Amino acid sequence: MNIDYENLERDINDGTLRTNLQEELTVGFRQIQQTGERLPTATHYAAQIAEIINREADLSDAMKFELYQEVLEAVEGARKAVLDEEPLPS
Asked: Fewer CB in a 10 Å sphere around the end CB: N or C, the chain?
């Protein structure tokens, strides 16, 4: 995950964090799916990612909530993108 901690609040507020994270997760989820494994649940994975980001960030409680919401939307979007793709021909 590439997180710009100096501009994290701005990136949360303007959707940059969600967009960038969703792009990274989509690639990773494709790789997971190609191995035949199930994708992680969105809520569980989002909580883990938000916790990792929070370790390095100095955010208010309100911003921590917003961070989790943005991460959750990114995870859900990446899961949907991968699960909705047509399978590649064998």
From this structure: C
